[in-house]
Known about the structure:
Layout (H helix, E strand, L loop, with lengths): L3 E7 L4 H11 L5 E8 L5 H8 L4 E3 L8 H14 L4 E4 L8 H6 L4 E5 L14 H10 L3 E8 L9 E8 L6 H24 L4 E3 L2 E3 L12
Parallel strand pairs: 1-2, 1-4, 2-3, 4-5
Antiparallel strand pairs: 5-6, 6-7, 8-9
Helix pairs in contact: 1-6, 5-6
Bound molecules: 5-O-phosphono-beta-D-ribofuranosylamine.
Amino acid sequence: MSRTKIGVLISGGGTNLQSIIDNIDKGNINGEIKLIISNKRDAYGLERGKKAGIQSIFLSPSDYSDFQSYNRKLIEEFKKRDVELIVLAGYLKILSKDFVSEYKDRIINIHPSLIPSFCGKGYYGDRVHQAVLDYGCKITGATVHFVDEDADTGPIILQEAVRVHEDDTVESLQKKVLEIEHQILVEAVSLFCAGKLRVEGRLVKTNRGDNCETRTN
Ligand code: GRF
């Protein structure tokens, strides 16, 4: 099976990006990252891409007249490289409707909670973990999902849970959840590249088997 051409959008440190790079190198993902784009000039994820020999560019939204034209530029750059799968790895901007329809069921996002809890507008990064602690939740986790036209509402691909301990802080929770993010994002991208993901309405069939357990660490 030929390798899936992947495009990655980032805004920050890029640890999720790094987990994809590492697992491509280990042969766990039958894909090739053709381009990494950041909307933030100082995103360390750009350094990670350059170190891995992947074309990594900063595109500033302020260089474009509006939201639509910025998204058209993103599409243009990915199309130029025949990208087939877009991964949002810590990307903090909303995509345009044009972008989402151009890559329907081919945009994967990672979110640091068990959607539909603590997601949507305003729920990103540490704010998610703070909301989990404030609510007194005993379980949280991460979700990988296809992107549709709204924020964090697309069909869910994979989820994994972690226990919230009484002495957990935003930092300790973020660390635990990030480990899960790396695992399920890699697995979801690997399944996509193996042609094993099938979207049926809101349901995503993964052919993964039901041997997934809830982690309780
Ligand atoms: C992660 O918490 C992820 O859930 C969110 O962005 C954060 C940073 O991820 N989407 P990364 O280290 O930049 O991959």
